[in-house]
Amino acid sequence: MRKNRLDVDILRSFKRKNGVKFIGYDDAVEDFYSDRIRTGTRESTIEYYRRELNIFRRFKVKECDQIIGISEISLELLDSFIEYLRVERGNSIGGINAKVRAIRALMFYCEESGFIKENPAKKWKQIKTKEPEINTFTSRQINELLKQPDLTTFTGLRDYILIKFLLGNATGQ
């Protein structure tokens, strides 16, 4: 009785019209891990890849209702993953960028290995973070600060010199 399922070995030997080998996501990820171990990547980095790529795998299963081949990953799926991380999981920008780096590394490996013809992650950039603005003292605030130490005492004179030194104005000019 036929079960209407293809054997994994048959799928691996199958070639698409565009010449790309069909390989499942899990097989591609295992090949990626093996390659990283072979090239001497640290164990902590491989664990990072495992953690981040497993989150992407769970998202793919939830989103696509099945495990899809590595060549079927699109830029739209990657963008929806970022949206999922932001909205549903509430990840920070740093956390999202960590996942982006891991997925990009996997996709570049798959492109080099011939599992995908065109890498959708090439144009997929990390989210830019807004640099915090560093406020400086105004001239008025500096003058007020310099008026605070009592110059008739040792500690006051010490504080005054230290403030001038920290402001880069220790010479009195």
TrEMBL record:
Pfam families, sorted: Phage_int_SAM_5
UniProtKB keywords: DNA-binding
Keyword Signal listed: no
Occurrences of domain Core-binding (CB) (ranges): 23-111
GO terms of molecular function: DNA binding
InterPro entries reported in the protein's UniProt record: CB (IPR044068), DNA_brk_join_enz (IPR011010), Integrase_recombinase_N (IPR010998), SAM-like_dom (IPR025269)
Signal sequence bounds: none
Transmembrane region(s): none
Domain of life: Bacteria
Name assigned to this protein: Core-binding (CB) domain-containing protein
Organism annotation: Alkalihalobacillus trypoxylicola
